[in-house]
Each structure stands twice: as structure tokens, then as C-alpha cells.
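User: C-alpha cells for both sequences below?

Assistant:
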Amino acid sequence: MTGNQPTTSTRHTPGTQPMGRTCPFSPPEGYRTLREEDPITPVTFPDGAKGWLVSRYADVRTVLADPRFGANRRRVRPGDAADAPLAPPPPGMFIMMDGPEHTRFRRLLTGQFTVRRMQKLAPAVEQIVAEQLEAMAGAEGPVDLLQAFALPIPSLVICELLGVPYEDREEFQENSGMLLRLEASRDEVTQAQAAMNEYIHQLAVAKRAHPTDDLLSGLVQSEQLTDEELAGVGSLLLLAGHETTANMIALGTMCLLGNPEQLAALRSDPALMDGAVEELLRYLTIIQYGLRRVALEDVELDGHRIEAGATVLASLSSGNRDATQFPDRPDALDIHRPYRTHLAFGHGVHQCIGQQLARVEMKAALSALFDRFPTLRLAVPADQVPMRDDMLIYGVHELPVTW
């Protein structure tokens, strides 16, 4: 299997967001046409909303960095027109906030996710990886790499970082999965979010009485957040801290197994791992449907007038395949690729706060996995691996492997 193996064939309909992949590792083919012919285009999104789709690297960066595009896109009622007022973001949901409110939350958290602190976490992450590999090695027959390895690593790490009991993982993983399902109803999303918030709230109450050395206790003791804000921040970090990295580890493993010449080069020179992690992040870009923004005023974008209130979708996956930024075979996986800034973690003031932790986890997991199991391979044909096309975060629902 290679990165160019087709899975389905889907023709793009003009005026719509490209959907349906022809390769499990690449965004829908329609994005290539849009980048070349209509990179800022009016579309009707799958939910029926009308807006603009931005597909080129430079334009994606512009939208994500320009303060005239707001991160909050919640209308007062579902289906409201573009000129309807926006509802306030939920308490603590700082990824949907702009200006001073976003800055207030971001400053509280930035010190917890510095490069230095994440590097100091590396030995603990490596120990967690080793323990998961040991348990995997003791299993007989094929195993699901997602459940046996890729998901436990970031879940254990974020639980340790936040001070969340790992034994509660089934509850918060079930709720976070519901929040990411494309077909989840509004009631299901509301119930899942309420359950996540209530769980963090009860945990915060306990830590107020008996604080420990973790991020959640630190936020409680800072007394700078209301109970509602604390619950929202904790839920967001818990969700993002395990879902994204787990799927990058699992999908990254599948991708390397499907590109044996790249995997062979990586095995022969472990020093390539840092570059391989960045290339996998660029190549796979698991925030598969992009980031939505709302124009806060009329904006002129490369000759197009974006009216105030209009929704703009910035496609990270398309931008990461733009030949103007990645000129040498952007649709190929190349772990030797000289580093160029990619969009896998977004851009601008909302760029992923946990990106350094994700890099540490991916490097530790992939390095140790292929060292421990040099004959690792898929246990089913690649086209039988169930992909997460139905989720906001792309990846695999399971990854059967053997060795």
C-alpha cells in the first residue's frame, strides 16, 4: 500500500465543500482544483449554511491571523442568517473567543505548555510508552493499535498533566467522542458537553479542598476563573489532549506502514524522527474539515468582498498540500523534506496550545513502536481499516496490527 492508494472515487460539485477521499491519507481531490482555479470560493456547507471556502496556504494563514475574522461562530439559533447576532461562547471555551477574553485564558495556560516543560515531560512520556508496548507484546494474535497503544498514551499523559483519574477514561472518552461526531444531534452534543463540564466541576471541587501538583489544581488555586470557566477549560483540554494525538499516532503508523521506503529510511536513521513527525503532521492534517471563522466586518480578501457576518472555512489540509509553500511533491510523504511551517496546529493567536506536547508524544510513541516491533504490519487489508470520515478529527476507528 502507498499513500496514493485510492479508496473511493468522488467527483467534486462546484459551490460545495469537497467531501469524500480518494486516498486515506489525503484530503478530497476537489481541493486541488480549488487551489488552482478558485481558491477563495462561495460555497454551501454540508449543514446548509452559506459562506466562503479558503484553500490556499497563504490565504488560510491570512484568515486565521486577521483579527477581522472572529473565532466565535455560534448563532443565537441554529440556521440563523449571517446577519443574526452571535451567541456568547460557552464559559471557558477560549478557542471560540477573541480579543481580551481569549488573551486572559491563553495567558493562564501558556506557562503550562512551554517547550521546556514539555521536554521535561519526555522521560515520563517514554515510560508510559514503554509500559504500553510491554502490555502489547504480551497479547496474543492481532491487536487494535488504537486501543492498545495510540489512545492510552496521550490519555495517560493528559490525565497526569491535568490531575484527572485515568480510571475515569471511559466516561470522558465516550463524551468527547460524541462531541466530535459529525452526525451527533444538538441534544446529544449538549448532553455530552454538560456531562464533561460536570465531571471537571466535581473534580475541581475536590481539588479546591485537597490540591495536588497538577494543572487543574493550579487553575483552582489561581482563583482567576469562575467554576463554569474552569469546567469549560478543563473539558476542552481533556478532549483535545487525547483525541488529536491518539489519532495522529494511529494514522501516522498506518501511513508509515503504507510507505515502506519512508519507514525503512526512518529505521536506518532515527535522527530523521523529528522531521518525520513534522511531515506526518503536514501530510495527514487530521483537523479534516478546517477551522471556521466569521467576518466581524466587511473584509477584502485577495479581490473578494467577504461581508460582515459571513462564515469563512479555512482548510488546513488543503493549505498543507499547496505547492507554493511545499514545492517538491506536496502530495507525497517525504520525511526528508526540509522543514517549512505547516498548518496542522492552525495559525495565529489560536494556534494549538498543546502542540509541543503532541510532538513529544508522537516522537516517543513512533520511535519506540517500530523499535520494539520491527515486523509490525497491518492485520487486515488497508482498505478494510475503518476510517474516521464521520468525525471532526480524522484518523481510524481501529487499526488491527500484528508482528
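Moving on to the next sequence.
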Amino acid sequence: MAAGYLEILRARHATRLLVGTLVGRLPNATAAIAVVLFVRAEGGTYSLAGALAAVYGVANAVGQPVLGRLVDLYGQPRVQLPAAVVSALGMVVFALAGTDPVALACAAMAVAGLFTPPLEGGLRALWPSVLREEEQVHTAYAMDAVAQEVMFTVGPLLVTLCVSLWSAQAALLILAVIGVLGALSVVVSEPSRAWRSAPREAHWLGALRSPGLLALLGAFLFIGIALGSITVAAVSYADVHGGDAVYGWMMAGIGLGALLGGVVYGARRWGGAPERRLRVLVALLAVCYLPLMLVPGPVAMTALATLAGVFLAPSIACAFVLVDRHAPAGTVTEAFSWLVTTFTVGASVGTGLAGPVVEWGGAAWGFAVPGVAGAAALVVLLATGRVLGVPGRGGVVAVSSENDPNRAVEPRFSSGDRA
């Protein structure tokens, strides 16, 4: 199992790009908890903390596809690093000025979120130029999904550790610096500097003109809703069964399940059409949400939460393959960024939906929301099966006179990216 991952990590630039991207994304992964802890340290209310975190989240959702399109047009270094610097400046202003006046705090959070660099989409655009076999790229997508789970698990722990050792303000300032350093590590690398998007057709819709991509976004909107609703239902369950510790164990269980599922999924080479495989994975994901409605004791509930996460990372990794296939030529970074935005919006909607459901029927009915959302994602995939089965563009054949003195024709991946 480890051999496939080690083969990828031994590839030139692969480890640097993966680690740099994860480090650069730490501010985004930890922004919500860092903002809440800072606002509370400043004496602000939970309502203000939630509002500022929401401003950051909405701005981030808007900025990702916009910056992704700019990356496709102008390259990674010219967009990623300036965006990281501006985002960090917004975070620094927030940390130094505090929550008064509120308007300045909101503006700083909006800038920090809007200019968060699309490192996630940028990394997935780079994989085909770093790895020479398509199966390796698919394994890299799975490894990417697993690394996300590690980041979203370890990141909040690092923030709380920083707050306990120094202060919430120091945590924000350190995150801002870390974000810039991560982006810098990526954009000065040879693959990032050499990468160019494939020639693109001018169209105001950009990547969204692909019917297959729209189908994927529709399905993953519901998967995002499922994840967002689980967090609210888990809080309600923990309030009755042991408090914050139980909530922490449940969230850790979901992360552990996703990590294990992603590791196993990426270690195997899968045959058959990826769109059919995605339908199976999403169906299993929806089914594994249903046992959460049993709301047993904390130990059993943690085990069920782990089961609920097992098919999450594989579903995301499989979706990466399909995004690459359906993104119109020259829009691959934007397409991946739209997936991030859709997932984020879905999680926010899920949080809002689960609240009233929990108040009406308790935790058990709250855990019904992710099951329904997972089923809705499957319905979208089934209804759009014909669209997903037709790639937006075929694989291209590139002639690389720079790297191949004999000018041999080399089959390339469907992203059309070149280095």
C-alpha cells in the first residue's frame, strides 16, 4: 500500500508541492476557530465571532473561482503569491486593530477571505506535469484528499496550542506568515513557474460552461450540506452525552474514517469508468450516514462517526478525476476552485438547515439531514449519468520540443496542462 505513495513522493518536486500547499492553506483551514478564539479574547460575543467567521467564509467562497480563473489566464506565481500577501495583510489588520470598530474588522476579514490563494486547485493542476503516468495522478488526488483530512484535524490543534502558549492575536499573526511562506514555497518551484494553462476559448462562464462540471458541483453541494449538518447534530448529541470531549471524539472519528478510506482507495488502481465508481462511493457514503440516527452511547457513536467518514475522501478523490476530465480547456484551476467553493457553500447551508431540525426533533433527526443530503447527491449523479459519461474534452497530444529533442509525440492528460 505504501509503495504507491512513496513512488509519488519520490517524484521530483512532488513532496515540496504537497507540503507547501498544505502549509499555505493552514490559514484557511483554521480561520474559523482562530477568529472565534480571538474575538472571545477581545471580549466580543459569540454572535460577533460567528458573523466575522461567516464574512471570511463567504468572501473565500467568492474569491476562489475568481482567483482560479486568473491563475489559468496569467500563471500561478503572478496570482498566488500576491493574493497570499494581501490575504495575510487583511489578517494582520484584523489581529492588530481588534473588533472595534466592527466595520474595519469585517472589511479585514472580507479581504483575508477574498484573496485566499487557490493553492488547492493549483496543486491539482500541477500534478499532471509532475507525475508522468495517469494512474499516478489519480493516486496523487487520493493522497491530496487524505492530506486535507490531516490538515483539518491537526490545524485546529496547532491554533489552540499557539493560543495557550502565547495569545489569540499571536495565533492570527503566525497563521498569516505561515500562509505566505507556504504560497512562496509553491510558486518559486520549477513546476509552478513553468506551468501554463492550455489555450482557452473566451467565455464569460469559464469552467461553468461544462455540463459535466455543473453536475458534479450539484452533487457535491449536497455532500457539503451533509458534512455541515453533521457538525450541528454532533454538538446537540454531545450536549446530552458528555460535552465538548464527546464532540471532539466524534469529529476526530469522521476525520480518521476519511483518512483510512482515502489511504486504502489511493493504494489501489481502479478500473472502469470513474463516473460509475463515484456513484457507488456516494451511495455508500449516504448509507453510512444513516446509522448515526441510532444515537447510541459515546463510544459506539464515535465508531459510527468513523464509519460515516470512510467513503468521504474516496468520493472527493474520484471527483477530482472527473473535474479534470470535464473542465473546459484552459480552466482547470478555476474548475477545481469551483468544487472548493461549492463544498464550502454546501457546508454553510447544511449548518443552517440542521439547526432548526435539531431544535424540532433532537440529535436523532439532526443526523437524518446528512443521510437525506447524501441520497440527494446520489440522485443528482444518477440523473446526470449521461452527461458525466461524456468528457468535456478528449485527452490532448502535446509535442514538447523543449524536453524532447526528437519531438516525439507524448500522450498527455485531459487537463491539457504543460510544464
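User: Anything stand out in the second?

Assistant: The longest helix spans residues 332-366.
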